[in-house]
Each structure stands twice: as C-alpha cells, then as structure tokens.
Amino acid sequence: MDADELTAPVTIGVEAYISEDYARAERDNLWRKVWQQVGRVEDLPKVGSYLTYDILDDSVVVVRTADNTFRAHHNVCMHRGRRLVDMPEGAKSACGHKKSFVCGFHGWTYDQDGNCIHIPEKADWQGSLTPGNTHLAPVNVDTWGGWVWINMDPAAGPLRDYLEPAATMLDPFRLQDMRCKWRKWLYFQCNWKVAMEAFNETYHVATTHPQFNKFGNFRGWAAAHGRHSNIGYDAPKDLEETKSKIRLGTGSDPRVSTAEMQLYTLEETNATTTKTLVDAAKRLVDELPEDAAADKVLEHWLASARRDDAARGVIWPTIDPKHLADSGTAWQIFPNFQIGQGLTTALCYSARPHGYDPHQCIFEAACYELFPKGEEPQTEWVYAPPDDPGWRSVLPQDFSNMAAVQQGMKSLGFGGPRPNPYMERSIANLHRNLAQYMGTGAPRQLATELER
Ligand code: FES
Ligand SMILES: [Fe+2]
C-alpha cells in the first residue's frame, strides 16, 4: 500500500498497540533503525555539554565537541559494560558538562570524542587494548530545526533525507530560533502510538474539546508524505481565498470570536498562540468596523501582531501564503515526534515506550516561542502527572482518552482502529510505515472486512 492508497478506508490490527511481542520487536526493527529527536541544541551550550537519551535497552550520550560538532555514543563502558553516565533518580535523562567521562566501576576514562584515554593497570592486558577496541561505540548524530537527532543504525542514511519533505516544508518557520517556553513529561498508561494518535488528528476536537465549537466550525484534513504526514484545517468558506492555516474565530462577529478564541487558547493551553497575538486580537473590535469581512479581520489581526512583535525585537518569518496553507498546523515526523508549527510559536509532542510493557509510555510536551534576544527563558524538563494543574484544561481532555483507548484496544469486542480516511490519515500512514519497518501490521482495506 502506498501513501496515495490511504484515501481509502482502512482498519489497523491491534497488535501494534497491545502485543508484548510486537513491543519487543520494535526495539530492533524500529527504534534501532530510525532517526529520533533527543533534545535541543541549546541544551548543549558549551563544548563538553552532554545529555543522555534512553530508549528500551539502549542509552545514548550526546556531547558537544566543538562549536558546531556533536558526537553521540552508546552510553556503556567498553571494559565490563557499566552504564557510563548514570541517570539521576526520577529523571528521564542526565545532562551536564564534562571534560571527560570516567566510569564509576574501575575508572576507565573517555574523552568527549569517545576515545578511551585512561585505563588503570593497562599493561595487564599485554598490549591487546587498542584505541580501536576501547573507543565508545558510535551513534549517528545530526541537528535539524534546533533539535539534536540520533540514529543507532550504522547504515542509516542522512538525517535530512530522512526528514524530507517535512524539513523543507518546516524550514521557513525557523524552529531553530525558537526557545522553550515550557516543557513537561509524564507517563501514560497507554502505548506510545495511542499517545501520539491523540494529537495527530483534528477529528477529536469537536467531541473531546467541545468548548471550541462555539468559535466556529473547523474541518481538518490530513495528508501523507512518505514516512511523515501533516494535518491542518480547511479554510472557512469566506476565507477560502486566503487559505490561511490560522484558525480565525468564525462566529457571527469574527472580530469578537477571534479575540475570544485566542484568549481562551492562551489561558487554557498556554501554547499555540502568544500574548502578542492575543493582544492584537483583543483590539480588533476597536480597530475594525462591525461589518468587517473575515478575510479583512485575519489580515488586520496578523499585520498588527507582526508589527507589535517587530517593535519588541521578534521578527516574524515571511512565508509564502500557499506554503503556509500547505504546511498545515502540525507535522508528524515518523515515528514518534509531532511538530505543531506556528509563525512565532510551536507545540511539540513525542512519546516512546516505557520498558517493554506495551501499555505504558513516556510522553513529552514542549511549547516553543520566538523571544527577543536576551529574553529567552531558561527552562528544564519538569515531570508533571496528568492531574497537575499546570496542564490547565485543554490537554487534560486529551489525556483523559489515553488509558481508556488502551483498555478498549484489549477488548474481545474490538477489531482494530478505523481511522477517518480524510481527517485521520496520519494514523493510517503511521501504521503503513511502521509495517514496513516491522514486517507486519499493514493497514487493511476496510471494505474487504467481513460484515459481522
Ligand atoms: S566497567 Fe567501566 S571501568 Fe570497569
Ligand atoms: Fe486535542
């Protein structure tokens, strides 16, 4: 099945979500083969800054070794296999700064490039320990979008090739210039795919987040692009000309509904919009006549927000309107990273297994924004369980589906997900690609299923 065929209705087997054998097989067939985002470039500010990334049995340590050079190695000492950099209690990764890495067991010492530079009593090995056989085991590393990416497969192709066409579509958004406004992680009682699939479609919005319905009728789309996919909203009828990706409130008075939706979004998600956009939206009622057409409202609102940001040193990227429309609201980077890109802000999610239990995952959410130079906040990853009030009200609505979906997947009465062929195509595309890595679990044409 190729991406074009995903316009037809499909059904997906539940094995990918609930089978322990499948979860174990993912280690070798998926996680040890794909490029994975492991942190931000700005988290490694100096030569010697490092971070670790753990997934199932593997731990990788990434180090900045020069101004624009990063090295990644398996986080394991070549003497007797002790984990080289320990994980702090209760953390999801280790980070810091080191001139060299000293193994806590017998003191073998590695430099930032992974060379073993000190072995106590080395002569006892009678010359058999060489630079080649004591060097830490290398892992591919590269950067794109301001993120550091690793790939454990020695035969992996370049990151850029892997990311296309998402990289080219997202480059104009200058994600590398954004900085974290907040970032949080938590465990969910569901498979990592269930967690990603709670955010890679817009079909759930009307029911899971009914409070948005009053701001207008939004119909979302999803498109497959090879390994990756993207989602967005169809422009409302009277905005078809502008084809904007930006959701304007389309209530009876778009000036009012836009301001209300922006304010609500900022207060209840603390993401996907900015104070500048909210303040500019609030002024619409004073700056535009009552009968202003929706496209004029959109144009005026964005132009005044752009000016306000420029005045405080935040320069918006200039993106061709067609490119903006085609890029949608979010990209799903195979297999487990979603980038929800905006002009001055981004909301990103990732999920990965938590051990081999297919019913658990580690989930990360990070909100990015363009800040004036020198005013970027310093943030760290914060553990925040689903009931932490800091999540505010919208994301917990999504969280409430996670464990309930996972439980339903195990039911004798469930034959597998049937994603909406228009609005949930990213789900079908994820499983189409997964099946290629895993050798099993390809989506099946729904029409060929037997009727009950
Ligand atoms: S296991 Fe690392 S020095 Fe012995
Ligand atoms: Fe949602």
From TrEMBL:
InterPro entries given in the database record: Rieske_2Fe-2S (IPR017941), Rieske_2Fe-2S_sf (IPR036922), Ring_hydroxy_dOase_asu_C_dom (IPR015879), Rng_hydr_dOase-A (IPR001663)
PROSITE patterns named among the record's database cross-references: RIESKE (PS51296)
EC primary class: oxidoreductase
Domain Rieske: 35-150
Cofactors (names): Fe cation
UniProt entry tagged with the keyword S-adenosyl-L-methionine: no
Domain of life: Bacteria
GO molecular function ontology, one term from the record: biphenyl 2,3-dioxygenase activity
Keywords: 2Fe-2S, Dioxygenase, Iron, Iron-sulfur, Metal-binding, Oxidoreductase
E.C. designation(s): 1.14.12.18
Protein name (Swiss-Prot/TrEMBL): Biphenyl dioxygenase subunit alpha
Source taxonomy: Bacteria, Bacillati, Actinomycetota, Actinomycetes, Mycobacteriales
